[in-house]
Amino acid sequence: MIRRPPRSTPKPSSAASDVYKRQLCSITIKKYIMRLNSKNNKALANAIRMLSVDAVQKANSGHPGMPMGMADVATVLYKKFLKFDSSDPYWPNRDRFVLSAGHGSMLLYSLLYLTGCKDINIGQIKKFRQLGSKTAGHPEYGELKGIETTTGPLGQGIANAVGIALSEKMLSSRYGNKICDHKTFVLAGDGCLMEGISQEAISLAGHLKLGKLIILFDDNGISIDGPTSLTISDDHMMRFKASKWNTIKCNGHSHEEIESALKKAIKDPRPSLIAFKTKIGYGSPNKEGKSSSHGSPMGVEEIKLIRKEFNWPFDPFHIPGPILTEWKKIGIKGKKYRDKWHLNLKASKYYSNLKKIFFGESVFDLENSLKSFKRDLLKADQTIATRKASENVLVEMNKVINNLVGGSADLTGSNNTLVNGQEIIKADNYKGSYIYYGVREHAMAAIMNGIAIYGAFIPYGGTFLVFSDYCRPAIRLSALMGLRVIYVMTHDSIGLGEDGPTHQPIEHFSSLRAITNLE
Question: Which of 441, 498, 507, 519 is catalytic?
Fold first, then answer.
């Protein structure tokens, strides 16, 4: 019998080679998932980091450092605590997540994509910061579902969140916890806390005891110019304590500590600041903890090192199926709460009124209601001050619109913004419809933006026209977002003389008319 020589191993075809590579890659992915699928969920956080790094690099513009540093906090928050449903981003009783540090927008865009929000796909992530993309350089209200407010000017998001948290208290006190019971989380950075508006906002929040408001402070000690020690020596913990806040410190890269800190904050009846000690650009061998990771792409070579650091053997913008599946499970975990809420809504004795508030099924017929009032004015033919005329109109409006919320920046008697029958909102009574904002014009304007964003109330607030300068950044954002906010600016005459030139509004009409979309 003649033995044949052993056959040499045949060279695989191109197609077979591709199959082999896919199998090898699949094995690599499974090993990676198994190794990292611990209670720390580092793989989930790394998905945020790598999407952020890749998007900023492709755009050649953006801020990768903050998303890399806060990815662990965001992962624990979304997986363990945040009540939301990605299939219905604007479900009224969801927890709110406000990104005050808006430059780190890729953190939010990554979260929206990973959790399965239908309004964003990987194509939008790849078009980060490009003309026509929903993934703008900073989050923009109305551009992409799931974004609570437009942020960019630092500190505005903190004040918006105060307005949102106050709205929750007001709505809950009127209609009960079954209809309204949620928390407001706001991610803020060193820059947000440096801006003066932050102090105005946190002071009022502490005074009003907004216990469901939690600030997640990205305490990385870095700003654009370098270490924050160049410009600030404040003890933020003492500062917040002085404003009647609960304060907690923890390691922002330890998932166990993050979870423990969030549990403590949620239990405390005061508003809470959690200072998460983080490293900006976390995982970058050469840029971690440096200002160079704040507002510039990491660079091709550095990203290779980052991939090696995280043992992330995947192509840019590719999230392995098991990781994406886990994130999407997080995205739908709130559906049971949403379904229960809709049942509670239908069973509520306030159902008819709540439909108008939440779903805009009817509009208040203000024009017809004011017709008889206008006829009476014509018959009377009286000469009265404009601020008195404003007060008379507010009286009529409050008769018709039951969700008006007024206020003034310590000028109530001068602005005539408080009308008969309005109850004052206090820390022990949120059923009222009037807010004493104190001498906090900037915060008042931004808080009203938050109230308007919330959607249940129509805010109006007063000050002197000359002090519109203090409100201007927030007024511009009101106009940019198309919000239903009313500003009552009194003492508008250039003839005002008793207080001197500081109180004479000379150029203010021109400056306000320059703001697009402001009536």
Answer: 441
